[in-house]
């Protein structure tokens, strides 16, 4: 069964001291209940609220946690790539997850995402926009931004994924071994889209599983105008490269 294989979860943090214990304790409980052989890598970007120190305390309590400390904020994409390399070099994962630390992702959706691999998918995205998916607590503005971003991706990149910006997803280990992560330079939502673009480009099958997404209850959202502009630049750049790749040779 896929649940008995080794599952690794990458969790980037910045000022998540109020959320991290609940997330980690919940994941450990899920691993035990579902028979999942789970490992966590927490990547903290020098959180001034002491998240990194708290992560160390949790790692001393649970032997399946690794904490990576970085001196400053280096970006979400950079954090995930650091975690991916840690997993692939030091462990023997079968499935590698991305998951937010702010409790917006429900740990109880993990088994459903894992089931997608049993159906033959190489990448499974936790989707807010497929049947059964939903969003709790977002303002109309946030919904418009998210829907607009995914609409843009669908039109320009033809990824055939309804929620390409979702940060709750899982990759087969062989997928990440096939991608040159050094060439993936984008951050935030753009990183999520670029990773799916690279997966599709290689020919991997991407599936979606419905999730419930919750607006964070503690702390502030890290979505900024600069990130939205970076997202737009990345999508247009990928669109341009896709167009060049599809152009007939002369």
Structural write-up:
This protein has 250 residues and is α/β, with parallel strands linked by helices. The protein has a single domain, classed as Spore Coat Polysaccharide Biosynthesis Protein SpsA, Chain A. 44% of the residues lie in helices and 18% in strands. It has eight helices and nine strands. The strands form two sheets. It has a seven-stranded mixed beta sheet with strand order 3-2-1-4-7-5-8, sandwiched between helices. A two-stranded parallel ribbon has the order 6-9.
Which structural traits does this protein have?
250 residues, Spore Coat Polysaccharide Biosynthesis Protein SpsA, Chain A, disordered C terminus, single chain, two-stranded parallel ribbon
Q: Which helices and strands occur, and which strands form pairs?
A:
Blueprint: E1 6-13, H1 20-34, E2 37-44, H2 51-61, E3 65-69, H3 76-90, E4 95-98, H4 110-118, E5 123-127, E6 134-136, H5 140-157, E7 169-172, H6 173-178, H7 188-202, E8 206-210, E9 212-214, H8 225-246
Helix pairs in contact: 5-8, 7-8
Give a quick summary of the entry.
With 250 residues, this protein is an alpha/beta fold. It has helices at residues 20-34, 51-61, 76-90, 110-118, 140-157, 173-178, 188-202, 225-246; strands at 6-13, 37-44, 65-69, 95-98, 123-127, 134-136, 169-172, 206-210, 212-214. It has one domain (2-243): Spore Coat Polysaccharide Biosynthesis Protein SpsA, Chain A, CATH 3.90.550.
């Amino acid at each position: 069964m896929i649940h008995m294989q080794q599952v690794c979860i990458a969790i980037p943090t910045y000022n998540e001291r109020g959320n991290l214990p609940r997330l980690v304790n919940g994941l450990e409980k899920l691993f035990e209940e579902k028979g999942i052989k789970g490992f966590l890598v927490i990547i903290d970007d020098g959180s001034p609220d002491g998240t990194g120190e708290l992560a160390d305390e949790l790692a001393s309590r649970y032997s399946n946690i690794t904490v990576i400390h970085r001196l400053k904020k280096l970006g979400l994409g950079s954090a995930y790539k650091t975690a991916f390399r840690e997993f692939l070099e030091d462990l023997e994962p079968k499935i590698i997850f991305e998951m937010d630390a702010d409790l917006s992702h429900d740990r109880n959706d993990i088994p459903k995402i894992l089931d997608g691999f049993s159906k033959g998918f190489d990448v499974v995205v936790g989707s807010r926009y497929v049947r059964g998916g939903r969003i709790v607590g977002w303002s109309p503005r946030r919904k418009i931004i998210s829907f607009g971003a995914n609409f843009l991706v669908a039109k320009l990149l033809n990824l055939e994924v309804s929620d390409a910006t979702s940060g709750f997803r899982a990759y087969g280990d062989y997928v990440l071994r096939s991608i040159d992560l050094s060439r993936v330079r984008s951050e935030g939502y753009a990183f999520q889209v670029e990773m799916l673009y690279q997966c599709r480009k290689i020919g991997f099958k991407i599936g979606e599983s419905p999730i419930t997404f919750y607006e964070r209850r503690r702390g502030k959202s890290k979505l900024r105008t600069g990130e939205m502009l970076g997202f737009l630049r990345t999508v247009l750049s990928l669109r341009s490269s896709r167009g060049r790749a599809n152009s007939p040779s002369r």
